[in-house]
Automatic annotation (TrEMBL):
Belongs to the triosephosphate isomerase family. It comes from Candidatus Uhrbacteria bacterium GW2011_GWF2_46_218. NCBIfam families: tim (TIGR00419). This is Triosephosphate isomerase. Pathway: Carbohydrate biosynthesis; gluconeogenesis; Carbohydrate degradation; glycolysis; D-glyceraldehyde 3-phosphate from glycerone phosphate: step 1/1. Gene3D superfamilies: Aldolase class I (3.20.20.70). The lineage of its organism: Bacteria, Candidatus Uhriibacteriota. The gene is tpiA.
Length: 261
């Protein structure tokens, strides 16, 4: 199974979000093999998008969440609020929040813990900057992020865990990593996650690639066994591009089914 997550960032309001959700359902209609799709609209569109995707295979995700359940935290959104809207996935530690909004590993760790506590599934985003990559520190940085973000986090035994490897230099730049580089990172990420949570089973870990994925390059990532899916930002708010990404996922899954038969 491949997972496709659409991060609609702050690109679209309620009306466009509803239209996008409808378009995605239409693109999946009648397909025999369907990827696991999660869409992450802005907070203000969650409620309306939820109505569109109820009783479909598409799941609802949020782009962030605060670590306390209730209290005097003006402007923040809690797990309880998201649960009321049937949100089941939450992006945590997106590079735009780490780098533009000063989110620290400590804050990210508290958010991951709260996502687990509330029974939702975190999609933890990790990745190096262009400078760190140029210094040959990619592996070191991502390993450090995982250790710091999961420090003290109790892993609920039945939970799923999604990690999105998203090099910062690839996000929104049109310069995606190569599938080969992503595969190497994904193998390392799996190993580190297993070190951190020794009781986690292989099938509970899903490692996705994100960073300038679109209809033209999605298949090259999705055909790789080690790449469990893609997290798509800019292209996910352009319906034709997202339809191409979904078709690429279906093609990759058909290939997998063919190989195992
Ligand atoms: C993202 O927002 O997580 C992302 C990968 O963005 P883009 O696809 O636009 O690079």
């Amino acid at each position: 199974m491949k997972t496709i997550i659409g991060n609609w960032k702050m690109y679209v309001g309620v009306r466009e979000s509803v239209a996008l959700a409808r378009g995605m359902l239409y693109a999946l209609r009648g397909k025999k093999i369907v990827p696991h799709v999660v869409i992450c609209p802005s907070f203000v569109a969650l409620s309306d998008v939820r109505k569109i995707i109820t009783r479909s295979h598409v799941a609802l995700g949020a782009q962030d969440m605060f670590w306390e359940e209730t209290g005097a935290y003006t402007g923040e959104i809690s797990s309880r609020m998201l649960s009321e809207l049937a949100v089941s996935y939450v992006l945590i530690g997106h590079s735009e929040r780490r780098h533009s909004l000063g989110e620290t590993d400590e804050m990210i760790g508290k958010k991951v813990q709260q996502v687990f506590r509330s029974g939702m599934t975190p999609v933890l985003c990790v990745g190096e900057t262009a400078e760190e990559r140029a210094q040959g520190k990619t592996q070191e940085i991502v390993e450090q992020q995982l250790h710091q973000d999961f420090a003290g986090v109790e892993y609920p035994p039945a939970s799923e865990l999604f990690i999105a490897y998203e090099p910062r230099w690839a996000i929104g730049t049109g310069m995606a990593a190569t599938p080969q580089d992503a595969v190497v990172m994904h193998q390392s990420i799996r190993g580190w996650v297993k070190e951190i949570f020794p009781s986690i089973r292989d099938e509970q870990i899903h490692v996705l690639y994100g960073g300038s994925v679109d209809g033209a390059n999605a298949y090259a990532f999705l055909r790789e066994k080690e790449i469990d899916g893609v997290l798509v930002g800019g292209a996910s708010v352009k319906l034709t591009l997202m339809q191409e990404v979904l078709s690429a996922a279906i093609e990759a899954m058909e290939g997998e089914a063919h190989q195992s038969s």
